[in-house]
Design brief:
Length: 381
Amino acid sequence: MKIMTALTLMISLLFSVPAVPGAEAADSFFAKVWEKAMPKLEKSLQLFDRQKELPESSFFGEDRKSNTKKYEELLDEVFEILIGSELHNSRQEYGVLEMKIGRAGDEISQLQKERITAPEKSWNPLKKTRAKIDGKIEKLKEEITDLSARKDELKKGMKDSLQAMGVKVEERQLDILLSSVSGDDILYLLLAADSIRKINLQIVDLLRGGQGNVQSARKYTGVHMVLVDLYLQANLDVMDKIGKEYIPRLEGIMVSAKKLGDEARLMLAKPGTDEKTRQVLEVNVKANERTVKTAELYRKYLRGQENSLRDAVGRLRRDHSVARNTYDTVKTGSDLISLIQISMSTLEGVFGFVVPDLSLVYDQELMKEFERITERIRTGS
């Protein structure tokens, strides 16, 4: 699956106070999630039920392999629905703004180079003069200022949204999350989990509101089982991505930086090196040392997320086994409510690791290096 975790759920509070029927559905985004996700979840459940009836393999017609593929594709579609929210939209806009600011900065750098050889005046209206270049640079700087202001607004909104979900992060921690190569993966896990929590609570409302007969209880137990499976697979996907893609690329960057630093030191040790060359090499040594230091912190950060995901996967596998067993044996709505209470307590543990403390990266230069390394990991360069 290509599916792409950090809040403390007061679950004991949620279940000790009578739920207000339809309270979660009042949220416009959740209403859309419920409307779009439920048919696909029920279809996924049908595919799950069908699996045991199909042959292991077949030249003609459906078999377990093709049925599993359809099931996983449906889970991918459900996941995309679950992460729909204002926070998701804000994150996407934030990314677009970052690209625009980056392009404007690159254009300013290019214009500054062109300004060196540009004439003061020219009879040719198409010719770039220093005055024209200065005007263009000023406009680009104003554009960057406006874009940056919008970024700050979005970041505050994202922080508020996370706090509303129960995720408390400091501004610098949010900066790291947004700059990290795994940041979007973790954010999507958070959004999916919040939607799963709301769906579970809505199901509890429905069962308490009179839809607690055996037939509806069995259906909702199956839907819950599928949601646990979906979230399990999502965590596995992110854990694999961190361990098998991000960290190896990061370690490659570390090896390269160490090698370049060693080469620079060897050249510095050679006699007859002129002062200008020595200054360049000394800057290179410091730059590569900074890269290695930041990369080591980055690896610690990613390992922390990987370990937390591994713990979450263990709990989710247990919950999925319980949910599957309960689906086959459920008798009343009360059984499902008990099951959801168990699952919600797991989510409470899953959501405890959004941004491990990386106070050393709060240094401005190291933070810039952190962002540069993130780009190199993403591009594989």
